[in-house]
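CORE FACILITY INTAKE
Project code: CF-77B
Contact: R.S. (postdoc)
Sample description: multi-component assembly, two entities in total
Requested service: structural model of the whole complex
Turnaround: standard
Below are the sequence entries exactly as provided by the requester. Do not edit them.
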Amino acid sequence: MQLSFNKRRRTSKAAATLAELKQGEQGVLESIDLPEDTAQRLMELGFLPGAPVTRALSAPGGDPRIYRIDGSEVALRRETAKHLILRVQKKTT
Amino acid sequence: MSACHECSFGSCPKELPPPFKSQSTTPHVVAVVGPPNSGKSTLFNRLTGMRQKVANFPGVTVEQRVGRAKTRGPREVVLVDLPGVYSLTPRSEDERVTRDVLFGEMANSPKPDAILLILDCTNLARHLVLAAPILALKLPTLIVLNMADDLRSRGGEVNTGALATELGAPVALISAAKGEGVEKVFQFIEGTAAGRSPLQAPKVELPVLQDVPKCRQWAGQVGAGAAYKAPEPPLWTRRLDQLFLHPIAGPAIFAVVVVAVFQTIFVGARPLMDGLQGLIQSSGVWFNHVLPHSVLTSLLVDGVWTGVGSVLVFLPQILLLFLFIGILEDSGYLARAALIADRTMAKMGLQGKSFIPLLSAYACAVPAIMSTRTIENKRDRLATIMIAPFMTCSARMPIYILVIAAFVKEQHLLGPFLSTQTAAMLSLYVLGFLAAVFTAKVLKSSVLKSERTPFVLEMPPYRWPTLQSLGIRLYDRSKVFLHRAGTVILLVAIVLWVLLHLPLQNGKAPEIADSYAGMLGHSIEPLIKPLGFNWKIGIGLISSIAAREVIVGTLGTIYGVEGEELEHSEGLRHALQNELSLGGAFALLIFFAFAMQCMSTIAVVRRETGGWRWPAIQFAYMTFLAYAGGFAVNHIVRSGLLSFIGLQP
């Protein structure tokens, strides 16, 4: 009961951060909520506002996860990924 | 992970070009710049014929390397290979090196006259971002688009002529790994050396450098102007990742790979090693026979040949280890291993990036400690330096192999896949790792506590390791190993021989026990007796402060001097069986697992931490741990606690 309820809630709500993306799912980056230094580094790797990000595979255990960004694959820990905010997307239905 | 290894005694770049010819003017300095893993070092090797180490892993070059280009022009061309950067805003030590060299602010490094900007053209739009700050330097620059073969095979395209117009700089499409198009690079450096500058005003104005989004936009615009078509995603990489990062298969494959590597090192290298040993022994006997009986012959045969020879025997095994590490690094698997290991590293209070130096410390702690420069966080870096020497480096292999072969009976544990000796060896590797984990935890929860820095690691596509690159590694490693055998180990062997043959008694060499070396051994015997070591092992311990593998040479010399008959028997292994109890043998292994017996490591830690404080703490701590561990193991084995698992003397 509980499980199915959770599942439905998740699918109906779009991912708000990179950490919430499911495998194969894509989102558009809105902003980076991290200290200047780290944000700069991530931006150099392609994590720029407006850039599409796809979640790829993860390490066994689910963390860190690999994200496809700007033509390459970059691994981030969950603790970092949750500070990368995604653009709110309108539901297509 | 630089190949610079024997350099730690102060004079590092021993491969610096020889003094420049007097008739030519000052040398033409060309810097090789580019993002990490774009193939700078591969091109550098092509241009210089020098052996800069290459791997399919971001962050291989951690300090600038200098080499002479094989050009035809009259003027000397010096190439400087720089650590990979994404921008000229440095955030770690290695990136600072790049920035400082380019701005001419690096001591002992002249400001470059021209630049080779290496970009990975399979990901051109993003890599072009670096072109903005580089072109802003207003130096003659060649844009080298590397990995042309990859781009083609995956259906990508770029118009180099249009790109050259867009940027106002010449462009060469090459494949450094295959050697394709390298002549264009030679033409460029020969041209700039002759004073030609091909730089023009860029068609698209350069962006404001600090603004990353603007730079990326600019790069995209330039790419579009050059009709850049990004290649298809690397299909094979994705398929392989499905397997190597599979929740169950991934870690299982990792474990199988590690065990297989060690099993091969043990079993596969045996015949080679035995052959080499036989050769060295019989040649020693032959020398003794042929050369006239004199002090000099004794020094040469009993001192130098036996001492150095007993270390040389381990070359095949060490090369095999490096072959495997090379394949893992070049193929790109290592980045996946770092990903798999990140969780474990996080538990230690470190990050996945520390895993890279720690893994290469399995080969040697010296390059590993230098490669910690890629870690941005100072405290994380220091903690990694402190634990790196616990990883089982290749210099420990000789004594491990010797003692294990002498004291652990060869039996199958899991059929032909895992033998008792391999298991013993693996458990020593695990032990070193656990000591590192423990130390990291202590350090990170006390003096080196810090905010967790984010783990950001690019996953390179898988590539076939090239025979050339693997060959260069093995050649490099043999050179380092033979160089050490020819210097440190040779020196220790000579000093030891002298100490073993003095003071003269009635004009003759004394018994070992009465020699200076013997006295030295005897004087520390009370200290090491609780570990189960006698005074002869004591001499070995003292001499191995220079380098771990020296102990094998020392023991070889001692037993070579002691009994002629030993030279004909199976040698050192039997001598040790007579000399050590099982407890003492295990204590010796534990001692070597923990102790910091390596002058090169001490020197490099001093250099990287900028003082004697940390190496002193490290040496004291590791020696204490080694002593305590050896003491405990000796007493546990002696008390018979281990007999229930079937281990017998």
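Facility notes:
- Strands of chain A lie at 26-32, 52-58, 65-69, 72-76, 84-86.
- Residues 15-86 of chain A form a domain with the SH3 type barrels. fold (CATH 2.30.30.90).
Invoice: internal transfer
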